[in-house]
Write a structure and sequence with these properties.
With 350 residues, the chain is an alpha/beta fold. Helices cover 35% and strands 15% of the residues.
Length: 350
């Protein structure tokens, strides 16, 4: 078995065994430097301290490349729930929204709080079978936050297409290690501070040209206009593509996002996928050898039901994981290696 050593070289400097990317990814050095540079410029009143539109558009284009769509299909924002709320607002009263049981609140709540939609849940492994005539939208995460399970993406897409339902994919726990084909869904939303290694405040929405029709640019800020600096009075003309759904960007976050996404583009998502899933598989095998029963699958996120109480013990040993819904959750990414697997298993064996 070939040894797996961390990718990314000197970009990452954590002194810990960091296995909590599903909570928050580590920032590369280049990203930290970009955010600090903008803050320093802002602190002394330099004109470039206002933030660079070129960096914003570079981040948009880099995410579009990663997601397999054109930049004109990508909108920017600061939170997943704000993007989801935009989609929720576009649905007519009485429309049915189907989602997996226990999926993340930011994906579900914008639909449930409306009060005039029919919301319905189903087990993740039965989600495709639960799509029925009259289902307007299937909203689901590619990878579940609580336990790392990967949805049957093709089956859900096929079921939705068969019943005329639109699809909303939350790629927050998958983009950065699992290849993303955003054009295969009507909408995708991605919080980029996990496996995409971006600062908090960078969130990407993709919208197909057909699905763009029913959406109203509710944020309606100056940044969504075709000519952003024509910014007095009502926006006269919104951008033709998905940029019309932009929120005003958090410049520091997107200056950093440009650097993080560049790094991932240099390494390649397929390379990251092979690396992270191999480490996760070795961790699952080691857990089984210790008598534990991790959630099965080939996800980069490994969960062990009932073992969440061991999270503080691991943290005390310098191994950062998470406890979610009773599970011990460990997430592997490009900056992890075999040594991280061995350290975590050694503590759990004690």
């Amino acid at each position: 078995m070939d040894a797996l050593t961390p990718l990314g070289g000197a970009e990452f400097v954590s002194p810990h065994t960091y296995l909590n990317t599903a909570g928050c990814g580590l920032l590369p050095r280049r990203t930290v430097e970009a955010v600090k540079a903008l803050a320093d410029q802002n602190a002394v009143g330099r004109p470039d301290g206002l933030g660079s539109h070129a960096s914003i558009e570079a981040a948009r284009a880099l995410f579009a490349r990663l997601a397999g769509v054109g930049p004109d299909r990508v909108a920017l924002g600061a939170t997943v729930s704000a993007h989801v709320a935009l989609i929720a607002a576009s649905l007519p009263a009485g429309a049915e929204v189907l989602y997996p049981e226990g999926d993340f609140s930011s994906l579900i709540s914008p639909f449930t709080v409306r009060g005039d939609l029919k919301t319905r849940s189903a087990p993740l492994d039965a989600l495709a079978d639960a799509v029925r005539p009259g289902t307007a939208l299937v909203a689901f995460s590619a990878v579940q936050s609580a336990d790392g399970r990967v949805a049957d993406l093709a089956a859900v897409r096929q079921a939705a297409a068969a019943h005329g339902a639109r699809t909303l994919l939350d790629a927050t726990q998958s983009a950065g290690w699992l290849p993303l084909d955003a054009g295969a869904y009507d909408y995708t939303v991605t919080g980029a501070y996990k496996f995409l290694l971006c600062p908090r405040g960078a969130v990407f929405l993709t919208v197909t040209e057909e699905a763009q029709g029913p959406l109203v640019p509710l944020h309606a800020g100056w940044f969504a206009g075709e000519e952003p600096y024509d910014c007095y009075g009502p926006v006269q003309r919104f951008a033709a593509g998905a940029r019309r759904f932009d929120e005003g960007p958090v410049f520091h976050a997107y200056h950093g996002a440009e650097q993080s996404l560049t790094l991932l583009d240099e390494i390649g998502i397929d390379t990251v996928n092979a690396h992270a899933t191999a480490l996760a598989a070795r961790f699952r095998s080691g857990l089984a050898g210790l008598g534990y029963e991790p959630v099965a699958g080939d996800s980069a996120i490994v969960a062990v039901p009932g073992l969440g109480a061991r999270q503080p013990e691991l943290a005390a040993a310098g191994i950062l994981t998470a406890a979610r819904d009773g599970n011990l959750r460990a997430a592997f990414h490009l900056y992890n290696g075999d040594a991280d697997v061995e350290r975590a298993l050694a503590v759990l064996a004690g």
